Automatic annotation (TrEMBL):
Gene3D superfamilies (alphabetical): alpha/beta hydrolase
Signal peptide range: none
Assembly and binders: Homodimer.
Designated name of the protein: Homoserine O-acetyltransferase
All copies of domain AB hydrolase-1, residue ranges: 46-339
Annotated pathway: Amino-acid biosynthesis; L-methionine biosynthesis via de novo pathway; O-acetyl-L-homoserine from L-homoserine: step 1/1
Gene this protein is translated from: metX
Lineage: Bacteria, Pseudomonadati, Pseudomonadota, Betaproteobacteria, Rhodocyclales
Keywords: Acyltransferase, Amino-acid biosynthesis, Cytoplasm, Methionine biosynthesis, Transferase
Function: Transfers an acetyl group from acetyl-CoA to L-homoserine, forming acetyl-L-homoserine.
Length: 398
Protein backbone atom coordinates (compact mmCIF):
# COMPACT_ATOMS: atom_id res chain seq x y z
CA UNK A 1 0.00 0.00 0.00
CA UNK A 2 0.97 3.67 -0.18
CA UNK A 3 0.08 6.94 1.51
CA UNK A 4 -0.58 8.58 -1.86
CA UNK A 5 -4.16 9.00 -2.91
CA UNK A 6 -5.64 6.30 -5.11
CA UNK A 7 -8.87 5.92 -7.03
CA UNK A 8 -11.65 4.26 -5.06
CA UNK A 9 -12.01 2.00 -8.10
CA UNK A 10 -8.52 0.55 -7.68
CA UNK A 11 -8.07 -3.14 -7.01
CA UNK A 12 -5.09 -4.94 -5.57
CA UNK A 13 -3.50 -8.31 -6.14
CA UNK A 14 -0.93 -9.74 -3.75
CA UNK A 15 1.34 -12.24 -5.51
CA UNK A 16 1.80 -14.37 -2.42
CA UNK A 17 5.41 -15.19 -3.31
CA UNK A 18 8.59 -13.24 -4.07
CA UNK A 19 9.05 -11.66 -7.50
CA UNK A 20 12.38 -12.60 -9.08
CA UNK A 21 13.98 -9.48 -10.53
CA UNK A 22 16.44 -9.31 -13.42
CA UNK A 23 19.21 -8.58 -10.93
CA UNK A 24 18.62 -11.93 -9.25
CA UNK A 25 17.08 -10.28 -6.18
CA UNK A 26 13.84 -11.72 -4.88
CA UNK A 27 11.36 -8.99 -3.97
CA UNK A 28 8.96 -10.19 -1.25
CA UNK A 29 5.43 -9.07 -0.46
CA UNK A 30 4.66 -7.71 -3.91
CA UNK A 31 1.27 -6.13 -4.52
CA UNK A 32 0.03 -4.65 -7.77
CA UNK A 33 -2.70 -2.01 -8.02
CA UNK A 34 -4.81 -2.03 -11.15
CA UNK A 35 -8.10 -1.10 -12.76
CA UNK A 36 -10.19 -2.83 -15.40
CA UNK A 37 -12.92 -1.83 -17.83
CA UNK A 38 -15.18 -4.12 -19.83
CA UNK A 39 -15.50 -7.89 -19.64
CA UNK A 40 -13.19 -10.75 -20.56
CA UNK A 41 -14.86 -12.86 -23.25
CA UNK A 42 -15.39 -16.61 -23.13
CA UNK A 43 -12.19 -17.25 -25.06
CA UNK A 44 -10.31 -14.89 -22.71
CA UNK A 45 -8.63 -13.32 -25.72
CA UNK A 46 -10.09 -9.80 -25.93
CA UNK A 47 -7.73 -8.14 -23.44
CA UNK A 48 -5.99 -4.81 -23.96
CA UNK A 49 -3.11 -3.70 -21.74
CA UNK A 50 -2.61 0.03 -21.14
CA UNK A 51 0.77 1.13 -19.75
CA UNK A 52 1.13 4.51 -18.03
CA UNK A 53 3.92 7.09 -18.15
CA UNK A 54 6.44 8.11 -15.48
CA UNK A 55 4.20 9.61 -12.79
CA UNK A 56 0.93 8.13 -14.02
CA UNK A 57 -1.59 5.92 -12.29
CA UNK A 58 -3.90 3.02 -13.19
CA UNK A 59 -6.69 5.54 -13.90
CA UNK A 60 -6.20 5.48 -17.64
CA UNK A 61 -9.74 6.70 -18.31
CA UNK A 62 -8.78 9.92 -16.54
CA UNK A 63 -5.44 10.71 -18.13
CA UNK A 64 -6.24 9.21 -21.56
CA UNK A 65 -9.95 9.89 -21.66
CA UNK A 66 -9.85 10.82 -25.35
CA UNK A 67 -9.04 7.18 -26.21
CA UNK A 68 -11.80 5.71 -24.01
CA UNK A 69 -15.44 5.09 -24.83
CA UNK A 70 -17.83 3.47 -27.30
CA UNK A 71 -16.41 3.45 -30.81
CA UNK A 72 -12.98 4.61 -29.68
CA UNK A 73 -9.64 2.82 -29.44
CA UNK A 74 -10.26 1.72 -25.86
CA UNK A 75 -13.86 0.56 -26.08
CA UNK A 76 -15.01 -1.37 -22.99
CA UNK A 77 -17.83 -2.91 -25.03
CA UNK A 78 -15.28 -4.72 -27.20
CA UNK A 79 -12.29 -5.20 -24.92
CA UNK A 80 -11.29 -6.17 -21.41
CA UNK A 81 -8.97 -3.25 -20.64
CA UNK A 82 -6.38 -3.47 -17.87
CA UNK A 83 -4.10 -0.75 -16.55
CA UNK A 84 -1.86 -1.28 -13.53
CA UNK A 85 0.48 0.90 -11.52
CA UNK A 86 4.05 0.19 -12.49
CA UNK A 87 6.49 -1.68 -10.22
CA UNK A 88 8.44 0.95 -8.27
CA UNK A 89 5.58 3.46 -8.47
CA UNK A 90 3.63 4.94 -5.58
CA UNK A 91 0.01 4.50 -6.62
CA UNK A 92 -0.63 1.14 -5.02
CA UNK A 93 1.98 -1.17 -6.53
CA UNK A 94 5.00 -2.13 -4.45
CA UNK A 95 7.72 0.49 -4.54
CA UNK A 96 9.98 2.57 -2.30
CA UNK A 97 6.96 4.17 -0.59
CA UNK A 98 5.54 0.74 0.33
CA UNK A 99 6.11 -1.14 3.56
CA UNK A 100 8.87 -3.75 3.51
CA UNK A 101 8.49 -7.05 5.39
CA UNK A 102 10.08 -5.46 8.49
CA UNK A 103 7.24 -2.93 8.66
CA UNK A 104 9.34 0.06 7.65
CA UNK A 105 9.08 1.74 4.27
CA UNK A 106 11.41 0.35 1.64
CA UNK A 107 12.82 3.81 0.90
CA UNK A 108 16.37 3.70 -0.44
CA UNK A 109 16.52 -0.04 0.31
CA UNK A 110 14.13 -0.80 -2.55
CA UNK A 111 16.03 -2.87 -5.13
CA UNK A 112 16.71 -1.51 -8.58
CA UNK A 113 14.12 -2.60 -11.11
CA UNK A 114 14.09 -2.59 -14.90
CA UNK A 115 11.40 -2.09 -17.51
CA UNK A 116 11.50 -5.87 -18.01
CA UNK A 117 10.80 -6.40 -14.32
CA UNK A 118 7.86 -4.04 -14.58
CA UNK A 119 6.42 -5.89 -17.57
CA UNK A 120 6.92 -9.30 -15.94
CA UNK A 121 4.82 -8.14 -13.00
CA UNK A 122 2.13 -6.95 -15.41
CA UNK A 123 2.30 -10.36 -17.10
CA UNK A 124 1.77 -12.02 -13.73
CA UNK A 125 -1.33 -9.90 -13.25
CA UNK A 126 -2.60 -10.95 -16.67
CA UNK A 127 -2.05 -14.59 -15.66
CA UNK A 128 -4.09 -14.12 -12.50
CA UNK A 129 -6.87 -12.44 -14.49
CA UNK A 130 -6.94 -15.57 -16.68
CA UNK A 131 -6.07 -13.63 -19.84
CA UNK A 132 -5.13 -15.93 -22.73
CA UNK A 133 -4.90 -13.43 -25.54
CA UNK A 134 -4.05 -9.71 -25.71
CA UNK A 135 -5.34 -7.84 -28.75
CA UNK A 136 -2.82 -5.06 -28.26
CA UNK A 137 -0.63 -3.35 -25.66
CA UNK A 138 -0.62 0.45 -25.78
CA UNK A 139 1.36 3.12 -23.97
CA UNK A 140 3.19 6.41 -24.30
CA UNK A 141 6.59 7.48 -23.00
CA UNK A 142 7.53 4.98 -20.23
CA UNK A 143 4.31 3.20 -21.17
CA UNK A 144 5.55 2.96 -24.75
CA UNK A 145 8.80 1.38 -23.57
CA UNK A 146 6.80 -1.20 -21.62
CA UNK A 147 4.52 -1.90 -24.58
CA UNK A 148 7.54 -2.80 -26.72
CA UNK A 149 8.93 -5.06 -23.97
CA UNK A 150 5.58 -6.86 -23.85
CA UNK A 151 6.05 -7.78 -27.52
CA UNK A 152 9.40 -9.43 -26.75
CA UNK A 153 8.55 -11.08 -23.42
CA UNK A 154 5.07 -12.40 -24.27
CA UNK A 155 5.10 -13.08 -27.99
CA UNK A 156 2.42 -15.78 -27.82
CA UNK A 157 -0.18 -13.65 -26.05
CA UNK A 158 0.43 -10.22 -27.56
CA UNK A 159 -1.09 -9.75 -31.00
CA UNK A 160 0.01 -6.15 -31.59
CA UNK A 161 1.57 -3.08 -30.00
CA UNK A 162 0.95 0.67 -30.07
CA UNK A 163 4.01 2.55 -28.81
CA UNK A 164 3.80 6.35 -28.72
CA UNK A 165 6.54 8.89 -28.02
CA UNK A 166 8.98 6.15 -27.06
CA UNK A 167 11.92 4.18 -28.44
CA UNK A 168 13.40 0.70 -28.64
CA UNK A 169 16.28 1.73 -26.41
CA UNK A 170 16.96 4.71 -24.21
CA UNK A 171 19.29 7.08 -26.02
CA UNK A 172 22.22 8.98 -24.52
CA UNK A 173 20.06 12.10 -24.90
CA UNK A 174 17.26 10.62 -22.77
CA UNK A 175 19.77 9.31 -20.23
CA UNK A 176 21.28 12.81 -19.94
CA UNK A 177 17.87 14.27 -19.04
CA UNK A 178 17.45 11.51 -16.46
CA UNK A 179 20.81 12.31 -14.91
CA UNK A 180 19.98 16.01 -14.66
CA UNK A 181 16.92 15.05 -12.62
CA UNK A 182 18.97 12.75 -10.37
CA UNK A 183 21.42 15.56 -9.70
CA UNK A 184 18.55 17.88 -8.79
CA UNK A 185 17.23 15.35 -6.28
CA UNK A 186 20.66 14.65 -4.80
CA UNK A 187 21.36 18.37 -4.38
CA UNK A 188 18.56 18.67 -1.82
CA UNK A 189 20.16 18.17 1.64
CA UNK A 190 16.98 16.48 2.79
CA UNK A 191 17.36 13.70 0.20
CA UNK A 192 20.13 11.97 2.22
CA UNK A 193 20.83 9.37 -0.47
CA UNK A 194 17.18 8.39 -0.35
CA UNK A 195 17.11 7.86 3.42
CA UNK A 196 14.82 10.80 4.12
CA UNK A 197 12.03 11.11 6.62
CA UNK A 198 8.72 10.49 4.75
CA UNK A 199 7.21 13.29 6.82
CA UNK A 200 9.95 15.67 5.65
CA UNK A 201 10.79 14.64 2.07
CA UNK A 202 13.18 16.43 -0.32
CA UNK A 203 10.53 18.75 -1.70
CA UNK A 204 12.90 21.22 -3.32
CA UNK A 205 14.91 18.48 -5.03
CA UNK A 206 11.86 16.67 -6.40
CA UNK A 207 10.31 19.95 -7.56
CA UNK A 208 13.53 20.86 -9.38
CA UNK A 209 13.70 17.40 -10.98
CA UNK A 210 10.13 17.78 -12.18
CA UNK A 211 10.87 21.24 -13.57
CA UNK A 212 13.76 19.83 -15.59
CA UNK A 213 11.51 17.08 -16.90
CA UNK A 214 8.72 19.50 -17.81
CA UNK A 215 11.08 21.49 -20.04
CA UNK A 216 11.94 18.27 -21.90
CA UNK A 217 8.24 17.40 -22.22
CA UNK A 218 7.25 20.59 -24.05
CA UNK A 219 8.53 22.50 -27.07
CA UNK A 220 9.69 26.09 -27.64
CA UNK A 221 6.72 26.88 -29.85
CA UNK A 222 4.28 25.42 -27.29
CA UNK A 223 5.57 27.57 -24.45
CA UNK A 224 5.89 30.64 -26.64
CA UNK A 225 2.32 30.32 -27.92
CA UNK A 226 0.92 29.86 -24.44
CA UNK A 227 3.04 32.33 -22.48
CA UNK A 228 5.34 34.41 -24.66
CA UNK A 229 6.50 37.36 -22.55
CA UNK A 230 3.23 37.60 -20.63
CA UNK A 231 3.26 38.02 -16.87
CA UNK A 232 1.74 35.61 -14.40
CA UNK A 233 -1.06 38.05 -13.69
CA UNK A 234 -1.90 38.34 -17.40
CA UNK A 235 -2.09 34.56 -17.90
CA UNK A 236 -3.29 33.22 -14.56
CA UNK A 237 -5.08 36.28 -13.11
CA UNK A 238 -5.70 35.86 -9.36
CA UNK A 239 -4.27 32.32 -9.45
CA UNK A 240 -0.78 33.65 -10.11
CA UNK A 241 1.58 33.20 -7.18
CA UNK A 242 3.87 35.91 -8.59
CA UNK A 243 1.73 38.16 -10.85
CA UNK A 244 4.66 40.36 -11.95
CA UNK A 245 6.98 37.54 -12.99
CA UNK A 246 6.98 35.85 -16.38
CA UNK A 247 4.08 33.43 -16.52
CA UNK A 248 6.25 30.57 -17.76
CA UNK A 249 8.30 30.72 -14.55
CA UNK A 250 5.20 30.38 -12.40
CA UNK A 251 3.92 27.54 -14.60
CA UNK A 252 7.17 25.61 -14.13
CA UNK A 253 7.23 26.14 -10.36
CA UNK A 254 3.59 25.07 -10.16
CA UNK A 255 4.31 21.75 -11.85
CA UNK A 256 7.23 21.16 -9.52
CA UNK A 257 5.28 21.87 -6.34
CA UNK A 258 2.25 19.90 -7.57
CA UNK A 259 4.29 16.74 -8.10
CA UNK A 260 5.73 16.97 -4.58
CA UNK A 261 2.21 16.64 -3.18
CA UNK A 262 1.38 13.50 -5.14
CA UNK A 263 4.60 11.56 -5.70
CA UNK A 264 7.45 9.99 -3.78
CA UNK A 265 11.03 11.07 -4.49
CA UNK A 266 12.49 7.55 -4.23
CA UNK A 267 9.78 6.24 -6.55
CA UNK A 268 10.64 8.97 -9.03
CA UNK A 269 14.28 7.94 -8.88
CA UNK A 270 13.44 4.24 -9.21
CA UNK A 271 11.38 4.88 -12.34
CA UNK A 272 13.88 7.07 -14.16
CA UNK A 273 16.54 4.47 -13.31
CA UNK A 274 14.31 1.78 -14.83
CA UNK A 275 13.81 3.84 -17.99
CA UNK A 276 17.57 4.13 -18.46
CA UNK A 277 17.85 0.30 -18.46
CA UNK A 278 15.56 0.11 -21.49
CA UNK A 279 17.18 -1.53 -24.50
CA UNK A 280 15.33 -4.29 -26.34
CA UNK A 281 18.69 -5.70 -27.44
CA UNK A 282 20.31 -5.80 -24.00
CA UNK A 283 21.61 -9.33 -23.29
CA UNK A 284 19.62 -10.65 -26.26
CA UNK A 285 22.06 -10.11 -29.10
CA UNK A 286 22.09 -7.13 -31.42
CA UNK A 287 19.33 -4.55 -31.18
CA UNK A 288 18.59 -4.82 -34.88
CA UNK A 289 18.31 -8.58 -34.75
CA UNK A 290 15.86 -8.53 -31.85
CA UNK A 291 13.62 -6.08 -33.69
CA UNK A 292 13.83 -8.05 -36.93
CA UNK A 293 12.50 -11.12 -35.12
CA UNK A 294 9.37 -9.42 -33.79
CA UNK A 295 6.41 -10.65 -35.79
CA UNK A 296 3.59 -8.56 -34.33
CA UNK A 297 2.22 -5.46 -36.04
CA UNK A 298 3.58 -2.41 -34.20
CA UNK A 299 2.27 1.13 -34.59
CA UNK A 300 5.09 3.53 -33.77
CA UNK A 301 3.77 7.00 -32.96
CA UNK A 302 6.14 9.95 -33.31
CA UNK A 303 5.33 13.50 -32.21
CA UNK A 304 6.74 16.06 -34.61
CA UNK A 305 7.88 18.47 -31.88
CA UNK A 306 9.10 15.88 -29.35
CA UNK A 307 12.48 17.02 -28.06
CA UNK A 308 12.92 14.06 -25.68
CA UNK A 309 12.17 10.97 -27.76
CA UNK A 310 13.16 12.54 -31.05
CA UNK A 311 11.66 11.48 -34.37
CA UNK A 312 14.72 9.55 -35.52
CA UNK A 313 14.22 7.17 -32.58
CA UNK A 314 10.78 6.19 -33.86
CA UNK A 315 11.78 6.22 -37.54
CA UNK A 316 14.58 3.74 -36.90
CA UNK A 317 12.29 1.59 -34.77
CA UNK A 318 9.54 1.44 -37.39
CA UNK A 319 12.08 0.71 -40.12
CA UNK A 320 13.66 -2.21 -38.27
CA UNK A 321 10.38 -3.86 -37.28
CA UNK A 322 9.15 -6.29 -39.97
CA UNK A 323 5.57 -5.15 -39.40
CA UNK A 324 6.27 -1.68 -38.10
CA UNK A 325 3.96 1.17 -39.09
CA UNK A 326 5.06 4.78 -38.58
CA UNK A 327 2.51 7.33 -37.40
CA UNK A 328 3.53 10.98 -37.44
CA UNK A 329 1.56 12.96 -34.86
CA UNK A 330 1.43 16.63 -35.70
CA UNK A 331 1.57 18.48 -32.38
CA UNK A 332 3.24 21.64 -31.13
CA UNK A 333 3.15 20.42 -27.54
CA UNK A 334 6.34 18.37 -27.59
CA UNK A 335 6.60 15.02 -25.84
CA UNK A 336 3.41 15.65 -23.87
CA UNK A 337 1.52 15.70 -27.15
CA UNK A 338 0.77 12.00 -26.58
CA UNK A 339 -1.52 13.21 -23.78
CA UNK A 340 -2.53 16.72 -24.79
CA UNK A 341 -3.40 15.89 -28.40
CA UNK A 342 -4.80 12.40 -27.87
CA UNK A 343 -8.18 13.37 -29.33
CA UNK A 344 -6.46 14.38 -32.56
CA UNK A 345 -4.58 11.14 -33.19
CA UNK A 346 -7.12 8.74 -31.67
CA UNK A 347 -8.83 8.05 -35.04
CA UNK A 348 -5.51 6.98 -36.57
CA UNK A 349 -4.74 4.64 -33.69
CA UNK A 350 -8.29 3.28 -33.92
CA UNK A 351 -7.87 2.60 -37.65
CA UNK A 352 -4.72 0.61 -36.89
CA UNK A 353 -6.48 -1.40 -34.17
CA UNK A 354 -9.57 -2.00 -36.31
CA UNK A 355 -7.29 -3.11 -39.13
CA UNK A 356 -5.92 -5.88 -36.93
CA UNK A 357 -9.36 -7.41 -36.56
CA UNK A 358 -10.13 -6.95 -40.26
CA UNK A 359 -6.90 -8.75 -41.17
CA UNK A 360 -7.67 -11.54 -38.69
CA UNK A 361 -11.07 -12.12 -40.29
CA UNK A 362 -9.35 -12.32 -43.68
CA UNK A 363 -6.91 -14.93 -42.36
CA UNK A 364 -3.81 -12.77 -42.17
CA UNK A 365 -1.13 -14.78 -40.30
CA UNK A 366 0.42 -13.37 -37.15
CA UNK A 367 1.10 -15.01 -33.79
CA UNK A 368 -2.15 -16.48 -32.48
CA UNK A 369 -3.04 -15.92 -28.84
CA UNK A 370 -2.34 -18.94 -26.68
CA UNK A 371 -2.11 -19.75 -23.02
CA UNK A 372 0.93 -18.23 -21.43
CA UNK A 373 4.00 -19.99 -20.10
CA UNK A 374 4.54 -17.22 -17.57
CA UNK A 375 2.13 -18.31 -14.86
CA UNK A 376 3.26 -17.49 -11.32
CA UNK A 377 3.10 -20.66 -9.26
CA UNK A 378 1.39 -20.81 -5.92
CA UNK A 379 -1.55 -18.66 -7.04
CA UNK A 380 -3.72 -20.05 -4.28
CA UNK A 381 -1.59 -18.06 -1.87
CA UNK A 382 -2.48 -14.86 -3.71
CA UNK A 383 -4.85 -12.41 -2.08
CA UNK A 384 -7.48 -10.35 -3.88
CA UNK A 385 -8.36 -6.99 -2.38
CA UNK A 386 -11.30 -5.10 -3.87
CA UNK A 387 -13.04 -1.78 -3.36
CA UNK A 388 -10.61 -0.08 -1.02
CA UNK A 389 -12.30 3.12 0.12
CA UNK A 390 -9.93 5.85 -1.00
CA UNK A 391 -10.73 9.24 -2.53
CA UNK A 392 -10.49 9.42 -6.29
CA UNK A 393 -7.98 11.88 -7.65
CA UNK A 394 -7.44 12.00 -11.39
CA UNK A 395 -5.87 15.45 -11.52
CA UNK A 396 -2.58 14.12 -12.91
CA UNK A 397 -1.84 13.04 -16.44
CA UNK A 398 1.83 12.23 -16.45
Amino acid sequence: MTAFRLSEKSRWLALGQPLLLESGTELPGVEIAYRTWGQLNAAADNAVIVCHALTGSPDADAWWGALFGPGRTLDPRRYFIVCSNVLGGCYGTTGPASAAPDGRLWGARFPRVTVRDQVRLQMALADRLCIRGIRFVIGGSLGGLQALEWAVLDTERVDAVVSLAASGRHSAWCAAWSEAQRLALAADPKFRDGNYDPADPPRAGLAAARAIAMVSYRSPISLDKRFGRASGGEVFADRAAAPEELAVRGWLRHHGSSLVERFDANSYLALIDAMDTHDLGRDRGSYERVLNRLGQPVLVGSITSDALYVAVDQQDLAFLLPRGEFLEIDSVHGHDGFLIDAAGFEPQVRRFVDGLEDAAREGCPWPVSASTNHVVSGSAAGEWIFGIDKPEDASWQR
